[in-house]
Predict the structure.
Amino acid sequence: MKDIIIISNYFPPEIGAASNRIFQLSKDLSKQHKVTVICPFPNYPTGKIFDGYRYKFSVTETIGSVDVKRLWVFPSVSKNKFVRLFSMLSFSFSIVWFFMWHKIPKTVIVNSPPLLVAFTSLLFLNSKKHKLILNVSDLWPSAGIDLGAIKKGLAFKMLLKIEAYNYKKSHLLLGQSEEIITHIKTIMPNAKTLLYRNFPSFQAPLIKNTTPSESKKIRVVYAGLLGVAQGVLKLCKEIDFNPIELHIYGTGAEEDEINNFISKNPHLPIKFHGSLKREALHQVLIDFDVTIIPLLHRIYGSVPSKIFEYARLGLPIIYFGGGEGEAIIKCNHLGWTAEAGNYNALNELLNELKKEDFNVEFKRKIQSVSLKEFDPMLQLKNLSELI
């Protein structure tokens, strides 16, 4: 058994793929090792520290068999780049403080992005006595260009140098997509890498025969962050509702705008349900016909973790994001795809679908493929051999 520290900017009770990914990794590793997670006070995606953590400098908790050290952060979702920069640096300062006063075990896993948090950790721990593992979940700063969050210029060039430094100083690099691994190899050809996807390991539900809903429309559900990258507001404006009704679960930056759009268009079959905890959400999702996973723009390196989560639930998927995620849907016959950003193609697809396409046999087949192809224990075994 080894002592392992995981450093992450996101962790439950925060929601989202990054939080779920690190929680799953810490929980799985804790079955064989002593795991401690270092993270900021929960604040994402609201930009406000959650109740129970305010007005403190640090909090120590135990979640299952994982020790969690939560440190001070100045949270912000401000559009002002200097305020956002200070927010990221604030957690970096807290990490340095923690390193100065605590003994750090040999094995350290650092999650990236944010680049600056990873950079601070790798810079401070850069020595032969530490085995540094970088978990790359998104390709910043290039993803920032794809999202329109940053522009090419001096700041972008500096971030590219930080990205390269982070790869260079890591003994092992984990990438959640083949595109991420390929990108890393273009910068560090000899880097030691491992494809480590965000496979969930919850108990797969039994898919039962259900009484058909009274609605003749296809019941489509979106569940997740309501951020700019997902483009759910634009989806509501562009989608053809003749064959479908749309149900939305989640929270995020676009939440108020989505609610305003729904209130101004009461004739549209859209219902916003708010946010649910993961376990409760699973129970709700299995009753829908199909889920939709949209991305406003194709983001190189990005593979939404929802693909693997929904497949384990046996939920058919309409994927509207392009890239490697689209290839996974097609290769494993998990549902349907439409060209990213092409709403005409999406509407044509929706009008071709029929209510009977979403039968129990199809859902069971999707779940069976998931349990075989998306095995979290197999990739955990591969990681454990390299730690």
Remarks:
- The chain is about 40% helix and 20% strand.
- The first helix runs from residue 17 to 29.
- The chain has a mean pLDDT of 91.
